[in-house]
Write a structure and sequence with these properties.
Order of helices and strands: HHHEHHHEE
Helix content: 55-70%
Radius of gyration: 18 Å
CATH topology of the largest domain: Arc Repressor Mutant, subunit A
Shape: globular
Number of domains: 2
Length: 153
């Protein structure tokens, strides 16, 4: 795991990069997801403010990351059976790392993750499956069984 000093340096680099982008005054910003922003300057400043909040609140950044990774996993797998959720989470490095960084037991992290995401309507539990509530297209499960190219491992 990276040291706290490395984390702060990486965060400072990310913030400086966002500021450099904003200083260029781009006429167009192409985001990794979502619609094209109508006002690039405002979009970059909003991104800077969000990133700054995460830098200023390391625990909040870990929670944010855990919620995003979990939500994306639910989208990719078209939900996870509720009875398999604990086993699924405990087998994930991101979950183990988040519990350690947040100084929580894995049981407490799992409970709070599901509770907070259910109460915010980010996830729903239907037909015995925990699913992401956001509109999404699940990944064709056959593609998840294709091995990575040899050069990627």
């Amino acid at each position: 795991m990276a040291s706290d000093r490395d984390d702060r340096r990486a965060a400072a680099t990310a913030l400086a990069s966002l500021q450099r982008l904003a200083d260029l005054g781009p006429a167009l910003v192409l985001p990794a997801h979502g619609p094209l922003p109508a006002h690039p300057d405002a979009a970059l400043q909003a991104a800077f403010r969000r990133a700054k909040r995460l830098v200023d609140d390391p625990d909040g950044a870990v929670w944010y990351g855990a919620r995003r990774v979990f939500a994306y996993a639910l989208m990719i797998y078209d939900g996870i059976p509720a009875e398999d959720l604990d086993q699924y989470l405990r087998a994930r490095a991101w979950f183990t790392d988040a519990a350690q960084l947040l100084r929580l037991s894995q049981d407490d992290l799992a409970s709070e993750l599901v509770r907070s995401m259910t109460s915010s309507s980010a996830i729903v539990i239907t037909d015995g499956k925990v699913r992401a509530a956001a509109p999404h297209t699940p990944v064709d499960q056959r593609t998840l069984n294709i091995p990575c190219p040899k050069g990627w491992t």
